[in-house]
Amino acid sequence: MFDSQAGAQAVLEATEGDPFDLDPDQDGLACEEIDEGIEAPMDRGVAGESKELSVEECAELLSWLNETSPSLDRTQEILTEVEQLDLFEQPRPEAGRLFSEYADDFIEMADRQRVVTQPEFTTDANRYFVSAFNAFAESFDLLSSAVNEEDQALADEGSEQFDRGSDFISEASDSISTLSESCTAVTTSSEGSLPSSTMAPEVELFEGNGDGVSDTFTLVPGVAVFSLSHEGSANFAVLLYDEQGEIVDLLVNTIGSFGGSAAIGLPEGGEYIANITADGPWQIEIDQSIGNVLTPPASLSGSGSTASQFVQLEPGLARFSMSHEGDSNFAIVVYRDDGTYVDLLVNEIGNYEGAQATPIERSGTYILDIEAGGTWEVLITQ
Questions:
Q1: Which of 75, 246, 268, 345 could cross-link with 332 by S-S, CB 3.0 to 4.6 Å?
Q2: What's the longest Cα–Cα distance across the chain?
Q3: Rounded CA separation 133/166 (Å)
Q4: pTM above 0.70, yes or no
Q5: Range of the domain at 232
């Protein structure tokens, strides 16, 4: 049993040194190195033989990483909190409660990671992440009991589980590095392939005056945001065609000057062109980056047709409270970041005020494609 005078300090000293400050010379990661292992796994050393990935497979890797990143971000937050938390000043029940909450968080992350959509070639990395989350959950559960019961043996076991979790994070990072090496090779040998830094196409910009057709451009599976502008008095319409000549979407169809954006979901990537009808100067910018991600409660507002910022949503119901002041159509479509259509929340003419709930099946980032003729507001809660 612990010396009752030692309290929480004994938990931290259960092994040689601080159990939350692993020896960087060992296989695990020190707390100060977790940032490298979690936030920038692509920068770690490569282990094993690299699998050659196609452009499409690199896009699948990006989609999987996007779904995994919220759990990795939460892992980083927890480990940073633990590193900065002055446990010596915390009453034992409070420290035990915090450890227990961390354990519950890691259990949820492990459960989510088991069911995340993943390509076959990320099976090993995904399994390592699940094992890491389970090990961290077990570690914090044991440390919670160690604090509450003042039990030295439980503290030792908790520290060992923490080491295992760090080892699994390292293994996952090495596996991802191996895959990213292949994506880097793809980008240097294949024209029009994905940039190695983001595995998504660079922002495309097309300009013209009057009727026109864009150059061919590449889009990967996911969401594409088209920012469009026109200065003129007649019809302005932009049709998106795929490489087979099929219409993918009518991005805008209005009269006169226009400035706005539209989001579309692309479950499959490929080559595309934009066909423009206009009587004045126009500009089209195409972006597939995610950018800053909001978390509920997320308040959005604007005027006219707009592609929203991405919002992080978790499995369960998401509530959307919406309002619009205008004379024309007001419609909102939700897409997941992999391009999957989720729901049409509203499709009305004129002023509107109401709310809708829609089920979210997977943790990830989501975007709203908002068509409006006036000012609008959306509040997203979970």
A1: 345
A2: 83
A3: 10
A4: no
A5: 200-287
DSSP characters over 57-97: HHHHHHHHHHHHHHHHHHHHHHHHHHHH--GGGS-HHHHHH
Same structural domain for residues 216 and 159? no
C-alpha gyration radius of the chain: 25
Domain assignment present for 184 = yes
**Total tally of structural domains belonging to the chain:** 3
pLDDT in tens, 88-135: 455 667 778 888 899 999 999 988 888 887 788 888 888 888 888 999
- Please give the C-alpha separations between residue 297 and each of 135, 380, 382, in angstroms, as whole numbers: 31, 6, 7
Query: Does some domain include residue 2?
Result: no
How many residues does this entry show for the chain? 382
* DSSP of 216-253: PEEE-SEEEEEEEEE--SSEEEEEEEETTS-EEEEEEE
* CATH number of the domain encompassing residue 12: 1.20.1420
Per-residue pLDDT tens digits for 199-253: 456 789 999 999 999 999 999 888 999 999 999 999 999 999 999 999 999 999 9
* Strand positions, DSSP E, 89-221: 204-209, 212-213, 217-219
Nearest to 166 by CA among 100, 106, 85, 96: 106
The number of helix segments (H) and strand segments (E) in the chain equals 6, 19
**Can the peptide bond before residue 359 be classed as cis, meaning omega within 30 degrees of 0?**
no
